[in-house]
Amino acid sequence: MATAPEIDAPLNALDDFRTQARDWLAANFPPSLKGRDNAMSAVEGPTEEDAEQRAWREAMGEKGWGVPTWPKEYGGGGLSRAEARVLQEEMTRAGAWNPIGGMGVMMFGPTLLEYGSEEQKREHIPAIARGEVRWCQGYSEPGAGSDLASLQCFAEDHGDHYIVNGQKTWTSGGQWADKCFMLVRTDKSKKHEGITFLLCDMDTPGVEVKPIQLISGSSPFCETFFTDVKVPKSNRVGREGEGWTIGKRLLQHERNSLSGGGSAAGRMFAGTPLAQIAKKYVGVDSEGRIADADLRTRIARHEMDLRSFMLTLRRASLEAKSNQGPSAATSIMKNVGARIMQERSELLIEIRGMAGLGWEGEGFEEDALKDVRHWLFGKAVSIYGGSTEIQNNVIAKRILGMLDHQ
Question: At what angle do helices 293-322 and 81-94 cross, to 10 degrees?
């Protein structure tokens, strides 16, 4: 799949595009919105938009720059990857942020562009590109997590539609979603070949969502129950029994995004540098360095790992371009990204000491409170989207070529 022109624009054209992007941002991004992006919005759920936020989202949606490399005919920006990087640089310079995201952008959209029918693309992609529809993922089940192909949620053929019965779990954002992309079983006699990829409206009678309270205080994950839910066959992506192939491709896009290689690149590591926070809370020595030598060393090592990771992500992104999409290397990126994210959260808690253990109250800084909840939520990072152990299996089989018994 290619969601961007195969040949990047020449340098002089990039200069022209940079001017165009800078002028457009100056005309459309309200300076009052600087710093009002919420990197945890996918976890904390939708918030009420004010008039400026709505205008900014609609402007980005109309321009297609929320999904800059998606094809223009479906509402994307139609930019090359080089132009998209220039756009991101100009947005960073202006303090602007992308108001369009979620699972529709991270996972489902790129997958539908590759496997969907023309009618499905024209029905769903423009709404995702404008940030008008929220999608959730119906993959895991109580008995099908690490072994996803064991899923039992069943879709029975009723001519022009399916009747779906079963349960999904860890349905991230299910309580806020308009639609769900899901894997269902349509043939009980075949494991992988009996799985089909369906799209379901969340307001269909028989769909029930129950949020699961997490230790971080939020409830982004849900249990979702399907009882005699009618799904038209026109909502099937690909052929019946092709769901495992399509689902695996979607998981590659998911890992790519979760590792920071997608549109969310850099957001999870954004914010005030660790060294700056450490100097404030731990103090400095006579040479202006972080006073605690051991902590100073560990922060330096973490920053080197982070920068190496971000450079590797960029190289992997370029390789993905030549490979027509993300590869199994996304499993490596997902594992490394999860480790670095959790390490960063641990360092933030350690640096602030008692001041970094607040749950609520005026005695704690707002950033410290957010970082505590992020630290607690971060325990899930090495589990969701395929646990570290699952990624290790993918790496062993698809990259190293190892057999099951090895």
Answer: 140
What is the rounded average pLDDT of the residues 202-225?
89
pLDDT at 122: 97
Phi then psi for residue 157, to 5 deg, are -70, 125
The catalytic position among 83, 90, 114, 254 is 254
* pLDDT at residue 21 tops 50: yes
Neighbours of 384 (CB within 10 A): 15
| Structure-model confidence comparison of residues 198 and 4, the more confident one | 198
pTM for the model: 0.76
Strands 179-185 and 135-138, by their bridges, are: parallel
Angle at 136 between CA 135 and CA 142, to 5 degrees: 165
Yes or no: say if 180 and 224 are a contact pair by the CB < 8 Å rule: yes
pLDDT tens profile 108-140 = 999 999 999 999 999 999 999 999 999 999 999
CB-facing half-sphere around the CA of 71: CA atoms within 13 A: 15
222-238 in b/e form (b: 16+ CB < 10 A) is bbbbbeebebeeebbbb
Confidence of residue 324 (pLDDT cuts 50, 70, 90): low
Tell me if 191 sits within 8 A of 235, measured CB to CB.
Answer: no
Q: What are phi and psi of 154, to 5 degrees?
A: -110, 135
In Å, the largest CA–CA distance within the chain is: 78
Q: Which of 347, 344, 346, 349 is nearest to 359 (CA)?
A: 349
User: Residue 182 phi/psi, 5° resolution?
Assistant: -145, 155
Is residue 48 part of the annotated active site? The answer reads no
- Contact present, 116 and 124 (Cβ < 8 Å): yes
Nearest CA-CA partner of 297 in 274, 280, 281: 274
Nearest to 141 by CA among 215, 195, 201: 195
